[in-house]
Specification:
The protein is about 30% helix and about 25% strand. The chain contains ten helices and 14 strands. The protein has an eight-stranded mixed beta sheet. Strands 2-1-3-4-5-12 form a six-stranded mixed beta sheet, sandwiched between helices. Strand 10, helix 10 and strand 11 form a beta-alpha-beta unit. The two termini are about 20 Å apart. The relative contact order is 0.17.
Length: about 300
C-alpha cells in the first residue's frame, strides 16, 4: 500500500459543491451548513438534486441517476475545488457505477469530504483515482452545524493542513505499540459490503485501518469483523484506530468483541479515537502515510493531508 495523490488545499473564495450521494437532506440543516461554509469565505454551490426525494424509496435523496449526475457535474466543473457531501445514510453504492470515472480522473484531483455511507466513495476514489480523501463532517449534519471542534478541525484540514499533521485523540490503547502505514477505512459495515465489488481492495495489508460504525449491535460488529478476518482482508494490517460506535449497544460488550476479534492480530489498536458518528468528530485523511501511537493516542501524518 502506497500513499495516494493529495489534492490542493482550499483558499478563501474557493468554490465548493455540496452534493447528496446517499440519504435525503433536510433543507433547514443544509441552510445552516451553507452559512458556516460562507463564514469560512468559501463559495458553496448546491447541486440541483440535493433536496430531491426518491419517488419510491424514502431513504434515498432522489434517483440514482440524479445523485450520480450531481456528483459527476460537480467533480468535472473546473471552477469547483472541493465536493462536500451533505449527509450519509444509504445510497452511494447504488450510484458509483453510474459515474464516468475516466472523466473524473481527467478533471484532476479535488477534495472529497464525507463519512458513513460515503465510505463507498472514499474507496472508489482510492482505487479508481488514486486520490487522498477526507473522512470528515458533512455539510448538513448536526455535528457539523453545532459542534465547534468538528468545524475547527475540518476547517484547519482544508485551509492549513500542516497545522493538523498530528491528530490527537482522547482514546486509550487496547493493544499498545506504534505502527506505520497508509491510512484507510471508514464505516465498518460499508467496508465489508464493498468486498467483491469493482472498488474493493485486496486487503488492508500495510495500512493503518481507521474504522467506526453506527446502529450495529455487538453481534453484528462481531460478524463483520469475523468476515474480514476469515476472508484474509485484515492480513498484514499495520495498526488499527477505532472511532465512535454510536447506538451499537453497551460499550463494555462491544469493547470485549473488539478485543477478541482484533487483539490477536498482533498490531497496535487504539480505541475511542474521536472520528465517525460521535460528537465533535475529527477529520481523518485516507491515503496518507502516517504513524499510529496507540499509547499516546496520536496519528502523525508524514505530510499534510492536502498540498
Amino acid at each position: 500500500m502506497t500513499p495516494l495523490v493529495r489534492p490542493p488545499r482550499l483558499a478563501p473564495g474557493a468554490r465548493v459543491a455540496v452534493v447528496a450521494p446517499s440519504g435525503p437532506v433536510r433543507e433547514e440543516r443544509l441552510a445552516a451548513g451553507l452559512d458556516i461554509l460562507r463564514a469560512w469565505e468559501l463559495d458553496p454551490v448546491v447541486a440541483p438534486h440535493v433536496l430531491d426525494r426518491h419517488p419510491d424509496f424514502p431513504y434515498l435523496a432522489g434517483t440514482d441517476a440524479g445523485r450520480a449526475a450531481d456528483f459527476q457535474a460537480a467533480w468535472c466543473d473546473p471552477d469547483v475545488s472541493a465536493v462536500l457531501c451533505a449527509r450519509g445514510g444509504y445510497g452511494a453504492q447504488r450510484m458509483v457505477e453510474l459515474l464516468d470515472w475516466d472523466a473524473l480522473r481527467a478533471a484532476g484531483p479535488k477534495v472529497l469530504v464525507g463519512f458513513s455511507d460515503i465510505t463507498a466513495l472514499h474507496e472508489a476514489c482510492a482505487t479508481r483515482l488514486g486520490l487522498v480523501t477526507l473522512h470528515g463532517p458533512m455539510a448538513s449534519a448536526v455535528d457539523f452545524i453545532k459542534n465547534t471542534r468538528a468545524q475547527d478541525h475540518l476547517r484547519a484540514t482544508l485551509f492549513e493542513p500542516e497545522s493538523v499533521r498530528t491528530i490527537v485523540s482522547p482514546g486509550s490503547a487496547l493493544v499498545p505499540g506504534r505502527a506505520r502505514g497508509v491510512t484507510l477505512g471508514g464505516c465498518l459495515s460499508m467496508l465489508a459490503s464493498e468486498l467483491g465489488t469493482p472498488d474493493a481492495r485486496s486487503g488492508a495489508r500495510g495500512g493503518l485501518l481507521l474504522i467506526e460504525d453506527v446502529g450495529e449491535e455487538a453481534y453484528r460488529i462481531d460478524r463483520i469483523l469475523t468476515q474480514l478476518l476469515r476472508s484474509g482482508w485484515l492480513d498484514g494490517v499495520a495498526g488499527i484506530a477505532l472511532g465512535s460506535w454510536e447506538r451499537c449497544g453497551p460499550y463494555e460488550l462491544l469493547r470485549a468483541v473488539l478485543v477478541d476479534r482484533l487483539g490477536g492480530l498482533g498490531v497496535p489498536v487504539v480505541e475511542e479515537f474521536g472520528f465517525g458518528h460521535g460528537e465533535g468528530a475529527l477529520t481523518i485523511p485516507f491515503g496518507v502515510g502516517a504513524e499510529l501511537d496507540a499509547e499516546a493516542g496520536t496519528l502523525t501524518l508524514d505530510v499534510p493531508a492536502l498540498v
